[in-house]
Amino acid sequence: GENVEQHPSTLSVQEGDSAVIKCTYSDSASNYFPWYKQELGKRPQLIIDIRSNVGEKKDQRIAVTLNKTAKHFSLHITETQPEDSAVYFCAASINTGFQKLVFGTGTRLLVSP
Amino acid sequence: GAVVSQHPSWVICKSGTSVKIECRSLDFQATTMFWYRQFPKQSLMLMATSNEGSKATYEQGVEKDKFLINHASLTLSTLTVTSAHPEDSSFYICSARDPGLAGVEQFFGPGTRLTVL
Q1: How far A15 CA sits from the closest chain B CA (Å)?
Q2: Interchain pair A103, B110: CB under 8 A
Q3: What's the pLDDT at B72?
Q4: Which of A32, A98, A109, B60 is the most buried (most CB within 10 A)?
Q5: A113 touches chain B (CB under 8 A)
Q6: Measured between CB atoms, does A46 come within 8 Å of chain B?
Q7: Chain B, 94-113: which have a CB under 8 Å from a chain A CB?
Q8: Residue A52 binned pLDDT confidence (cut-offs 50, 70, 90)
Q9: If DSSP codes are grouped into helix, strand and coil, which group holds residue B20?
Q10: Within an 8 Å CB–CB cutoff, is residue A98 touching chain B?
Q11: What band does B102 get if pLDDT is binned at 50, 70 and 90?
């Protein structure tokens, strides 16, 4: 089955800096890659997603890149703000059957003012 | 649109008792719902896939007799933790896909924090 690895586990940046979180997946059949932001005690919130037919997607300060050959995808946050502090999870899904999500281990991002 | 609710938001129970958690899709019909468990400072782990009108599909290592799932309608799935023990204390989250939307996005409920004493 699918296995998703995520790095780093923690990331501390200064406000205004960029943050990059990387994930790798094992199943080449995976074709949907969402990123979630989760605040303590809250539900995961989808912040951006990408499908395998696209190499990059951007939404304001957030971007995701996908390298299908290497089976890795990355989240890029520019001009970080303290309110970006949270735990971020990547996930991968195969667009067949139940389309289950397999989550990465999470990255705790701390943005210091 | 695509709102998922859970009830209760938190529950405390004694060891050995059973606890039922409800997951509802409020503005869409969900033939498939997913149940996750999240321990503190860990990731979401899929427990089972709930299918309306049929048996749930459990992930490897999840005891189907301990975690009973019922998906009796297109808007409601329930997870019952039977004979709960302290090690079952966790954050339980459900999600659902809206088949009316042309995508695979899962919409998550707010979660239920279970504490077993």
Answers
A1: 24
A2: no
A3: 82
A4: A109
A5: no
A6: yes
A7: 95, 97, 104-106, 108-111, 113
A8: confident
A9: strand
A10: yes
A11: low
Minimum-distance CB partner of A101 among B42, B91, B106: B106
**Residues 6+ positions from A54 with CB-CB distance below 8 Å:** A66
Task: Measure CA B16 to chain center.
Answer: 20
Kindly report the backbone phi and psi dihedral angles of residue B87, in degrees, each rounded to the nearest multiple of 5, phi listed first: -70, -10
Instruction: Say if strands B67-73 and B10-13 run parallel, antiparallel, or are unpaired.
Output: unpaired
Preceding omega of B8 cis (within 30 degrees of 0): yes
Mean pLDDT estimate for chain B:
92
Q: Write out A22-76 in H/E/C secondary structure.
A: EEEECCCCCCEEEEEEECCCCCCEEEEEEECCCCEEEECCEEEEEECCCCEEEEE
Q: For residues A45-76, b (16+ Cβ closer than 10 Å) or e, as one string?
A: eebbbbebeeeeeeeeebbbbbeeeebbbbbb
pLDDT at B57 exceeding the cut of 90: yes
Bridge partner residues of A35 (DSSP): A48, A90
Query: Is B4:B108 a contact under the CB 8 Å cutoff?
Result: yes
